[in-house]
Design brief:
The complex is a heterodimer of chains A (about 250) and B (about 300). Chain A is mainly alpha-helical. Chain A has helices at about 45-50, 70, 75-80, 85-95, 95-100, 115-120, 125-140, 145-160, 165-175, 185-195, 200-210, 220-240, and strands at about 15, 20, 25, 30. The chains are: A mainly alpha (about 250), B alpha/beta (about 300).
Chain lengths: ~250, ~300
């Protein structure tokens, strides 16, 4: 049986006994060593291959579990449960249910690439995190994360017009994630700018809303990119064994 | 000898952010170029490089978007150097260059999309992509810069903040880590060098290449606020008056989360945030307005006056 080292020390596995005597010795209190034995039967043997088939996941097989990724990780420093090394281990051993415990934080990888910088095996863990987050969504384990929603709004705008306009991205993002437009910090930022009356900036932002920036003659690039995105989507669904991933 | 002036005229790729929230960086970069006699030809009819988002839909779309910019610079404008001041643009053009050189699959997709979009495809090696830091450091050098300083930054204490995308991942920047004369991916120093040449005092700042959380600045704001607060507090602890930035995403992120840290966490920091090109422009004798100080959210006008720089 593989050792899930983390599960051994989880708070819910700590046994508390108000009054426990063993061989006449009082051992009442908290114990983390009372591990219930468990036989693992629910391996998902396809998981590694599926994640490796998504963009960014290609090099997961190279990992030799040194932990440099987690050691260098920006998000791990904020939240110790964010553990790329452990997740790579779980994916490679097919421990799906254990991976799913952390399904709601994997998307939080910030793409700082410290892991990729530190990795001695060129696993490119940043890509593996993105591939894993996509896998979780496509398999229906998680809803679309705010990060993916943002990526989609951004990509839609680039593909449609060749350029993006930041204020409309912010507005669309807040709308699609059901957040109010009047964020206190956004109001404070706008107020800071207005106080200095940068007429040029206001005019530019105003014009950008009216005349959204676009790359001229973009329509052919747009059509080519839309076709390519569909092709990628189809391929990914096929790799994940999902319904409509039919070949062309 | 001619090596000193190798970037006299380069293709300029400002990117989307420099036309929006990062406009002060655009304005100050152009103003500094003019003051130093470095000419910029803006890439004609450019498009977004894909920033940090499009690669998450599919990395090769980003490779295509970046390659189109380089193709226009090379094939339509005859340039062999593209200068991108934005870390995101710079990083993506470098990444596209690396992928096109090493991955036949990427080249195949770029060729196919370029043909369908109706423009010449880009082949690795046609242009060299440089950052605004390389442009001044290698184009003018510290001595050249020193000779033009009219308004020394003496007495200004600076924490130089480079962020993630200028140095990571290492393999897309083959020109870095080559010892003397090249920048370092672990301890970058080009911005430090230029600001020191302009008379500033660079403070010890261990978070030079820490992440500001820029990719999730809206989608995971609370983590971004914490990351920015670390950076702001480390700069203050090092005795810095100003954080010098060289990326519009980092810059806007620092400004936004400085406000957010105060609103949400009740933590106030007073360190100023300026683009390195704004600081260099002021040192070259340009007015604060000319380098767009009024366009920053973080208000540095009072500070610059106090230091006799505005």
């Amino acid at each position: 049986m593989p050792i899930h080292e983390q599960s051994l020390i989880r708070p819910e596995n700590i046994k508390t006994h108000d009054k426990l005597e063993i061989d006449g010795i009082d051992v009442s209190g908290h114990w983390s060593t009372f591990i219930e034995s468990r036989v693992v039967t629910d391996y998902n043997e396809a998981m590694e291959d599926e994640i490796a088939a998504l963009p960014g996941g290609e090099f997961i097989h190279r990992c030799w579990q040194c932990g440099s990724c987690t050691n260098s990780c920006t998000v791990n420093a904020v939240n110790p449960d964010f553990n790329p090394r452990y997740w790579i281990y779980l994916i490679r051993t097919g421990m799906e249910s254990e991976l799913l415990r952390d399904k709601d934080i994997i998307w939080q990888c910030i793409s700082c690439n410290k892991c990729t910088y530190a990795c001695p095996r060129d696993v490119e863990p940043e890509g593996v995190m993105k591939a894993t987050a996509h896998w979780l969504e496509k398999k229906g384990h998680t809803p679309k994360s705010p990060s993916i929603i943002f990526d989609e709004i951004f990509a839609e705008q680039v593909i449609a017009r060749g350029k993006i306009e930041e204020s409309s991205i912010i507005r669309q993002f807040l709308k699609r994630t059901g957040q109010p437009l009047m964020q206190d910090w956004l109001v404070a930022m706008a107020r800071g700018l207005l106080m200095k009356l940068p007429v040029g900036l206001m005019r530019r932002m105003g014009l950008a809303v009216l005349f959204r920036p676009r790359t001229s003659g973009w329509s052919k690039a747009r059509a080519a990119l839309e076709e390519y995105v569909e092709e990628c989507e189809r391929e990914q669904r096929r790799a994940l064994g999902l319904g409509d991933g039919k070949p062309e | 000898m001619s090596e000193d002036r190798k970037y006299d005229r380069v293709a300029y790729y400002p990117g989307c952010a420099l036309e929006g929230t990062g406009h002060a960086y655009n304005r100050s970069t152009k103003a500094v170029g003019k003051a130093l006699g470095l000419k910029l030809d803006e890439v004609k009819n450019w498009n977004c490089c894909g920033a940090m988002e499009v690669k998450n839909i599919d990395p090769k779309i980003q490779t295509y978007l970046s390659s189109r910019v380089m193709s226009i610079a090379a094939n339509e404008m005859g340039h062999d150097v593209v200068m991108a001041p934005c870390n995101g643009c710079y990083h993506n053009l470098k990444k596209a260059e690396y992928d096109l050189e090493h991955d036949g699959g990427s080249q195949e997709v770029v060729d196919r999309l370029s043909t369908k979009a109706g423009h010449e495809t880009y082949k690795a090696g046609q242009v060299e992509t440089i950052h605004a830091l390389d442009w001044i450091k290698d184009g003018i050098g510290e001595d050249g810069l020193k000779a033009k300083i009219k308004n020394s930054l003496q007495g200004v204490k600076i924490a130089n903040y480079y962020g993630c995308m200028y140095t990571r991942p290492r393999h897309i920047f083959p020109e870095k880590d080559k010892g003397s004369g090249s920048d370092s991916t672990s301890e970058p120093h080009f911005m430090d060098d230029l600001l020191a040449a302009a008379g500033a005092e660079n403070v010890d700042f261990p978070l030079k290449t820490a992440c500001c959380g820029g990719a999730h600045t809206l989608s995971d704001s609370d983590i971004s606020t914490k990351l920015v607060l670390n950076i702001l507090e480390a700069a203050e602890a090092g005795g810095a008056d100003v954080i010098a930035t060289e990326c519009p995403t980092c810059h806007t992120g620092l400004e936004m989360h400085q406000i957010r840290a105060e609103k949400r966490l009740g933590r106030k920091t007073s360190v100023k945030i300026l683009y390195f090109t704004q600081l260099l422009g002021i040192a070259l004798g340009l007015s604060a307005r000319k380098v767009g100080v009024h366009e920053n959210v973080s208000d540095s006008r009072g500070f610059l006056k106090e230091k006799g720089l505005a």
